[in-house]
Amino acid sequence: MTEIFRAESVPGFPVHEIRHIRSRARVAHRGAQLLEWTPTGFDPVLYCSRRSVPVEDTAVRGGIPICWPWFADHPDCSSLPLHGFAQLMVWTHGYMETNDDEVRMGFWLEDDADTRDLWPHRFRLDLEICMGARLAMRLRMKNTGDSAFSAGGAFHPYFVVGGLEGLVVSGVTDAGYFDKTSGRFKAGDAGRLRIEGEVDRIYQTTGPVTLCDQTLGRRITVEGAGHRGTVVWNPGPEEAAKARDIAPGDYDHFVAVEPVLPQEVQVFLSPGEEHLMSLEVTIESTALSRAG
Ligand SMILES: O=P(O)(O)OC[C@H]1O[C@@H](O)[C@H](O)[C@@H](O)[C@@H]1O
Q: Which InterPro entries does this UniProt record tie to the protein (predicted)?
């Protein structure tokens, strides 16, 4: 049996709570942000900070924020919101469908006077979230105006890990990357990545990435399409301590793996054109027994 209800424990911040035979999930209308996805038989897959409260100018720290129409800082104006404004806007809930395998929810966002103050273009975003034993998200971005624009963005999932020491990231290391911590491009170094200290890299690869978590005995695989790079990010202890919405010690329990359209390779959309970006997350147990 599927149970779906709308809660509003923080006024002005409605959240859909979903209980389905294949997974449990929570989706906020603001940012169309998935806050929880817990497939049946597993512990939660997405980190969501208990310190984070929904406030007007900041996205909830965790789940899967949708970054759009730019990734990271705006190239020309540093006072504009980091990672774009889509994560701060209330999206319209379009539809909800359910079957034996999953619950699908559709949200959309169009330009209005507020978005045009920040970014002078006409657009429509359609997001579909499919929550079951696997998670799939599809983001369609369309230019609905009469002049061309370029747009960037990312799916910014925060994945729970048991501890960084027991974590190996595979799928990125053959690729070169831009190291945001040093501001330099670096060559790929083959082998598997371990997260030690602050890691903030935009890899020049779009293949699947796997988080092999020996502590929790599970493997999370992240696959995207329509993106042009992959970010791997963890703030490390020092940067995490500066963030008011990350509790002490939490940095050791999440890693972001993000299919991204970085600034340098945004998509160019002529009037009427659209671009589709998608994300798929699967999880498998590597332990003998799984959480109940
Ligand atoms: O603090 P925010 O806006 O959630 O961003 C978190 C991180 O997001 C990552 O995608 C960026 O590469 C990092 O540079 C950034 O610090």
A: Aldose_1/G6P_1-epimerase (IPR008183), G6P_1-epimerase (IPR025532), Gal_mutarotase_sf_dom (IPR011013), GH-type_carb-bd (IPR014718)
What is the rounded CA–CA span in Å between residue 68 and residue 84? 5
Q: Say how many Å lie between the CA of residue 220 and the centre of ligand 1.
A: 21
The SS3 of residue 117 is helix
pTM: 0.96
Render pLDDT for 93-117 as a digit per residue (tens, 0 to 9).
999 999 999 999 999 999 999 999 9
Model pLDDT for residues 150-185, shown as the tens digit of each residue: 999 999 999 999 999 999 999 998 899 999 999 999
CATH topology of domain 3-285: Beta-galactosidase; Chain A, domain 5 (2.70.98)
Query: Which residue has the least CA distance to atom 7 on ligand 1?
Result: 233
The predicted complex's ipTM stands at 0.96
Spacing, Cα 72 to ligand 1 middle (Å)? 7
Q: Where are the domains of the chain?
A: 3-285
- Residue 144 CA to ligand 1 centre (angstroms): 29
